[in-house]
Amino acid sequence: MKVLVINAGSSSCKYQLLEMDDRSVLCSGLAERISQEGGRLTHKIAPDTDKEEKLVREASFPTHVEAMELVIALLTDPQKGVIKDKSEIYAIGHRVLHGGEAVSQPVRVDERIKGIIRECFPLGPLHNPANLMGIEVAEKLFPGVPNVAVFDTEFGMGMPKEAYMYALPYGLYEELKIRRYGFHGTSHKYIAHKTAEYLGKPLKDLRSITMHLGNGSSMSCVKNGKCFDTSMGLTPLEGLIMGTRCGSIDPAIVPFVMEKKGLSPAEADTLMNKKSGLLGLCGYTDMRDVHAQVDKGDERAALALAMLVRSIKKTLGAYLALLEGKADALVFTAGIGENDDIVRAQVCAGMEAFGIKLDQKENSTRKPGARTISAPESRIPVLVIPTNEELQIALATVEVLG
Description:
By secondary structure, the chain is of the alpha/beta class. It has 2 domains: 2-151, Nucleotidyltransferase, domain 5 (2-Layer Sandwich); 202-389, 2-Layer Sandwich (Nucleotidyltransferase, domain 5), CATH 3.30.420. The chain contains 15 helices and 14 strands. Strands 5-4-3-2-1-6-8-7 form an 8-stranded mixed sheet, with helices on both faces. Helix 10 packs across helix 11 (299-322). ATP binds at residues 14, 212-216, 286-288, 335-339. This is Acetate kinase. It is found in: Cytoplasm. InterPro entries: Ac/propionate_kinase (IPR004372), Aliphatic_acid_kin_short-chain (IPR000890), Aliphatic_acid_kinase_CS (IPR023865), ATPase_NBD (IPR043129).
């Protein structure tokens, strides 16, 4: 049973074709610069294996349709293809950012669901329009193949009301559904399941804290296997300092800067989402560059690193309090979480009083798969577990379709 997973952006489209019988990845790829000059499609056959083969195609993609047509051509290529015909694809799973309160579970796409995604454009202006576009392109190019929408907000919808409400006039929630939704839900859900599996615990008994750290970062507090709290809010802007996002700030800063700098709401949104975070502090978004600059004595890079670690640590402390100090594990995942031993070490430094102590050798050693990086005497295990959002979307797609 083959499932195609699509993550459509405004000018890009990521995809992965999985064989669900053994959960192997047949191929994956990324189409870039759609509707722009210099389009490129990078296609990997048997990615992350010793048989990996990469194909790069330079082409013009006026729309997502042309990009996906090239993907289909590569999937079914007589020499390099991984399937003979696109009819072999059983279903298509789509990552969708926001479903509001109307959708709390993965769901088969129909006109009602597309309408809900469209209604949530104001809540996810950068993602939802592109996600809907990806669905409509799939419907056109794969007629008759079922499409399933898997929402980034799904995991956070399990929060109790005192966790997701803002202390604003209640009517704003009733009228505009202003509340905390949480994002990276596919990753947080996947990691919760893998953490329980790694620890040999039933998911319903799991109490853990997941740190999804990448260019976009978020944390989740898991209690009884469900999301008890999460760091992102109405949009993915709230919470931790990120690559280009400011994270949580005093709300009064926004109107103050708008007035002083003469910014429109759209310009203020761009400032906070695309020009802030690590980029705004030191000019870099990639942590490898930040570390390199720190090593050169760059004070602003050192400040950015210190602020990032502090924002993670503050949230970690809050979640330990919510779990009454009884956490089964702390889990690092995503690009920074899985690969940056410096950030992991600094986040856990000085946490011995909370029962957290790293094994510095294990922390600095690269190993594949899930692993423990805490010292034997650490009361709370510290884990590194690679996330796999595409597999989680494919699993959800199969489950929805029975």
